[in-house]
Amino acid sequence: MHINGKEFRTIWFDKKDQVVKIIDQTKLPHKLEIKNLKTAKDAINAINAMEVRGAPLIGATAAYGMALAIIENNDFAFIKKISGDLIKSRPTAINLKWAVDRMLKKLLGVNNNELLKVALDEAKAICEEDVKFCENIGLNGLKIIEEIYKKKKDKVNILTHCNAGWLATIDWGTATSPIYHAHKKGIKVHVWVDETRPRNQGANLTSYELNEEGIPNTIIADNTGGILMQRGEVDMCIVGTDRTIATGDVANKIGTYLKALAAKDNNVPFYVALPSSTIDWETNNLKNIPIEERNSEELSHIKGLDENNNVKKVLIYPKKSKAMNLAFDVTPAKYVTGLITEKGICEASSEGLKKLFK
Ligand code: MRU
Predict the structure, then answer these.
(1) Per residue in 249-297, pLDDT tens?
(2) Does the Cβ of 164 fall within 6 Å of ligand 1?
(3) Which ligand 1 atom minimizes the distance to the CA of 161?
(4) Disulfide check for 252: which of 5, 187, 232, 256 has CB 3.0–4.6 Å away?
């Protein structure tokens, strides 16, 4: 995808400097800053501080974090310790554990002098696979948008929550990939972008990337989706997911569940787009999904540009007030119209998932 007309990916390895390069997403949309990750600790911090975020990109960063660990010290005990630290850096997105486990499996038994090459090749393979998967999610989801467009013969209004765009993956995005494909095919689309408090990933990232690709979009407060659905101004919802469990229940950014309820009440199709790396086959009860609780400062403070174009962070709550910041919620499968994956679209249920993947 593009920024200022230039093609970008969200993460890559710089062979010359032996560093991992990322777009520091905490600086967007006001500044495009490429950051170097030099050590495994840098990768852990980047995930934890949300310089990189979004389930697939978190997984890819962890994979490269393992390679950075090998550059520091190619002793397997050290690599194993780092893999544990990486997994703990954010709890909800399953791609993190998935990527670290895949790397460990690949590295086990490899000669010390081969470890770095094998790790870099595998991290790259994870990224390339994600690009292909996200592209296929787009082609599969495109069929749904095409059908709505054929019936409606007018612009298709799509609501999305958080950022499940290319910035959350390596390229294309999950929820946005069908939108990008529809736009490329000449289908008129317009996106309602949930602002997504507290960190505003919708406003800061989704709207930013859609603007860069020329896709009409409007930012709305998180609570606006319901009335828009009642007014018939939403044709479908597409969201991403940080972890979809074996039963088809979907963990995603806080607020997703309420959008799904509103969609059900208004007969608006509610789709979840995901690569298979986001499926947690081992969890069968939504209550067992770990829900990340983040610093309440993300709620009580807000960042933006001041009148001199300097980024400023300000307190918006009474100094004495307490705040609680759960980062994710779970949408039960019964509210999900379908899961859009790289292999096709399936019912959000264990049968639906098994039919596609097993
Ligand atoms: O806290 P974040 O910004 O990492 O949360 C991201 C989301 O909830 C995305 O919707 C999800 O990871 C899907 S990304 C393709």
Answers:
(1) 999 999 999 999 999 999 999 999 999 999 999 999 999 999 999 999 9
(2) yes
(3) 10
(4) 256
